[in-house]
Amino acid sequence: MDIGKGISTGVEPGGSVSPGGAGGRDGGAGGRDGSTAPPGRPASASPIEFRLDPASGVPTYLQLVQQVEHALRLGYLKPGDQLPKVRDVVATLAINPNTVLKAYKELETKGLAVGRPGQGTFVEATLSQVALPELAALRKALLGWLATAGAAGLDEDGMVALFTSALRDFRNRRGGRPDRGGTTGGQTEGVA
Description:
Arc Repressor Mutant, subunit A, disordered C terminus, two-stranded antiparallel ribbon, globular, mainly alpha, single chain, 39% helix, 4% strand
């Protein structure tokens, strides 16, 4: 999600998951229903585009999966929307087609997408979402927090570390469930 520019999940508030940070939902799936695509977008355009963060340490296929999951959670994608065609992702990101296929297969395994021979890959299900008014208020509050953190001298990595640490503490206090790092409630560690 492009919250405060540059955090590497790639989801744009307007609905696109974009390498350049611009764009928005085009109302249709760009030609899937016979409509004409907006200027500068191919007829087979998807509501999202992907971007990669080579410094993240996250495998490329998982970055694509995570971006689709985030777009679903934020309501930027909905069932029936077409994901970008493999050849378009390959051309845009200069990655191996097998990487995109692996990501789409993972989404199919999770029940979030379905491949239709000769047509492409389409969103099949959605994930839990926050209602739009609440999402806008949360985004505004988070942008304020990011501005405060930046003014305090934190760079992007410092902001991510602080947020991750606070999220872990929140999760632990909420139910003592183990987090991904294996700690349980009451066993909080320092900064992520």
